[in-house]
Amino acid sequence: MRWLITGAGGMLATDLAGLLDDAVALSRAELDIRDKDAVTRAVREHRPDVIVNCAAWTAVDDAERHEEEALAVNGHAVANLASTGARLIQISTDYVFDGTARVPYAEDAPTRPVNAYGRTKLAGELAADGHVIVRTAWLYGASGRNFVKTMIRLERERESVSVVADQHGGPTWSADLARYVATLADAPPGVHHGTNAGQTTWHGLAQEVFTLLGADPARVKPIPASDYPVPAPRPAYSVLGNPRLRDWREALGEAFVEIQAGLVAGQQP
């Protein structure tokens, strides 16, 4: 089976490309998915059975300021991929929900994003109707910038760090998600939730990182989101139900070895 992965260089795309033998991974410079003619040429050249769309505008706060530009990537461009005749696996987000729930969101729960990023990703889900949609959350991995790497760096640089403690979600290792996505080539169309099981807050995740570093987790100070104002509001609770992947603490413990090895090798924290 032939795979085409968009958004090469990102966390998930990197892990998928390393996992799948018969995969071509294209960066934005190699394939701008907003360009329908370029998408058509890429599909004609590589003849994929499955396209995994990892290309996205992921800068949440920038999307709030530039929603139309984000929509072009996260929404309109998905239609270009969905119309190629190949099976599309569209990567989406927990931010399609409003965060008012108190139990994990089911895959068929009503969507109501509270920020531009969530609205644009929901547009991508609608464009991918009839294909496979995988929602994930709080992604981290050995490649690219992410929260776990930031906490590793801050533990070295600061005596204490203040981290938001009233936003709940499911931290997800990109390598675990890649392994799951690789099983979906023949899955029926529909929405799948692809996160590691369990839930925590950003504060709880930071404390776990400090613990794995052998540092005192009490150095991570809890603060409310209101003390850390950002342009885009975040859902207070975006835990996804039916997560399908193993417990987030187990995953983080295994991922930590790989992430630290990458940092030692000089990868960007």
UniProtKB/TrEMBL annotation:
InterPro entries cross-referenced by the UniProt entry: dTDP_dehydrorham_reduct, NAD(P)-bd_dom_sf, RmlD-like-bd
Domain of life of the source: Bacteria
Molecular functions per Gene Ontology: dTDP-4-dehydrorhamnose reductase activity
GO biological process: dTDP-rhamnose biosynthetic process
Domain RmlD-like substrate binding: 1-246
Tagged with keyword NADP: yes
SUPFAM superfamilies for the chain: NAD(P)-binding Rossmann-fold domains
UniProt keyword annotations, A-Z: NADP, Oxidoreductase
EC number: 1.1.1.133
Database matches in CDD domains: dTDP_HR_like_SDR_e (cd05254)
Pathway connected to this protein: Carbohydrate biosynthesis; dTDP-L-rhamnose biosynthesis
Cited PANTHER family: DTDP-4-DEHYDRORHAMNOSE REDUCTASE, METHIONINE ADENOSYLTRANSFERASE 2 SUBUNIT BETA
Biological role stated in the UniProt entry: Catalyzes the reduction of dTDP-6-deoxy-L-lyxo-4-hexulose to yield dTDP-L-rhamnose.
NCBIfam families per the UniProt record, alphabetical: rmlD
Protein family (similarity comment): Belongs to the dTDP-4-dehydrorhamnose reductase family.
Protein name per its UniProtKB record: dTDP-4-dehydrorhamnose reductase
